[in-house]
Hints:
Radius of gyration: 15 Å
CATH superfamily: Sugar-phosphate isomerase, RpiB/LacA/LacB
Number of strands: 5
Helix content: 40-55%
Oligomer: single chain
Amino acid sequence: MRIHVATDHAGFEMSQRLVEHLAARGHEPVDHGPSSYDAEDDYPSFCISAARATVRDQRAGVEALGVVFGGSGNGEQMAANKVEGARAALAWSLATAELAREHNDANVVAVGARQHSEEEMLAIIDAFIATPFSGAARHARRIAQLGEYETTGAIAGHEID
């Protein structure tokens, strides 16, 4: 599977280890930056690039997911979710990573590099990658509603204030 990876200075060292970890497990990691450590860098462009590439690959029929992380993962998740078609979930445990895929068909996971040990982060990311979407009708319906709102600003049959 192709895995698009992005971070900022807070996760720079971890991103290098993650790319090696993913490659060792047979995945095709694509690093969207940064390419060098800069304590003043900004995560939005890196995370948006990873999310765009993930969505583009999926729409082209390529099996792909994204991983974005920084100090807390919050800003990185917000940046990725600005991309149409991205469903980025902040995961802080194995359960939240698995449920993001199983119930929400999340295609990008955000993790806080300063919130977890390397071992915990890798386990969370591995769980996210390994967990398939359940395909349950109620989950598919809700995901479709999110996509509909994202593109039209409305959800058919539901009033939005």
